[in-house]
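Practice set, problem 2.
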Amino acid sequence: MTKYEFLEKMRHALANDLSGPVVQENVNYYDNYISDEVRNGRSETAVIEELGDPWALARTIIESLGKGESTGNVQEEYTYGSGHQAYRQRQGGRQIRVFSLGSWWKRLLLVLGIVGVIMVVAAVIGGIFSLLAPILVPFLIIVFVLRIIDRNRWR
């Protein structure tokens, strides 16, 4: 998804529930954020993936503003949060912190995938061992007994 597509989806999602100035302020914020990150050397795609789904992000913004505060009487003061995954919005005297659907779920999927691969490898090795054990154990016992007999014969 490009920056333009991301911002248009966000604009459309926010426009259903928020006033024009609030929508524009949020779109401007994410436009500036993406541009700043690209200027810092990150790819546009990576930044947009980190932000997550624009519809889910818009829903989080709308829920944080509440129904009565969607009229545009919110004092907008945006600052980047730690790890570029949060923003702060000042309303009256209180401050709201909204987190995007960043890449935590991707990390979780990666860890679960690695654990799954390890389990599959262990199951395959265990299955091979369980198939070969009935054949190899008697064979090894016979070889061991023959060696003992062979040693005793030469003494």
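Problem 2, part (b): a different protein.
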Amino acid sequence: MNPITMKLNVDTLLEQALKEDISSEDVSTNAVMPCATLGEVELIAKQDGIIAGLDVFARVFYLLDSSTKTAFSVKDGDEVKKGQKLGKVTGDIRVLLSGERVALNYLQRMSGIATYTHETAKLLDGTGIKLLDTRKTSPNNRIFEKYAVRVGGGNNHRYNLSDGVLLKDNHIGAAGGVAKAIKMAKEYAPFVRKIEVEVESIAQVKEAVEAGADIIMLDNMNHEAMAEAMKIIGKKAEVEVSGNITRENIAKLSDLGVDYVSSGALTHSAPILDLSLKNLHAL
């Protein structure tokens, strides 16, 4: 993450996480380390995977004490192996102890998402299909999780509700139908916005094509129905497929010729990558 993004959008979130973990004081650390002592601790991978979030990890310690130094032997996006030493953190031992869990929570979560995304994206190699994330992220962690998707080789769908027009089933219900929803969106949204509409049946596919949708999302449709939808759509719109798509079933979509596949699992179902801070010692 670049320094501007970090300062404007990330620091406040990291500070909130630190305040959650240290409401008044770190009793354990203050008990065994009453005075400032320079020390060093190693960052070690306990699983194979893709590392993501090193700048965030380092920033946690920096916010506690700006004199803390981090040095990494890897960069975001690198493959790491179990037992590999990834870097060192040097500073006041009290800072290393108090920041450890928050720093690792971010790094493990982001690296887990990057790893899961990487494994899923590999299943689409050579298909021309772009793998997208969704807004199914942890509250207040979207900036971290969507960044991790990119590091893992995926692509970001819209960041939030202000970022694009996506007419889902309840928008369509509120508007009174697919065609009406698309017409209203075209009249309201800036001309630079593409209009994407979610459809669940062949009848809705036909309606979306006739109404001039820019992107048609085939949601929770079976393979046969999606193949029929692709014939109807042709080159009249871009096509996204969504609905309960995971690493286990995504490859089955590769023969459809769609443009995008979105998967909420990238962020809501990715397990963490196990990492650890070990071998703390005074210098």
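Answer key, part (b): The chain has ten helices and twelve strands. The chain has a mean pLDDT of 96.
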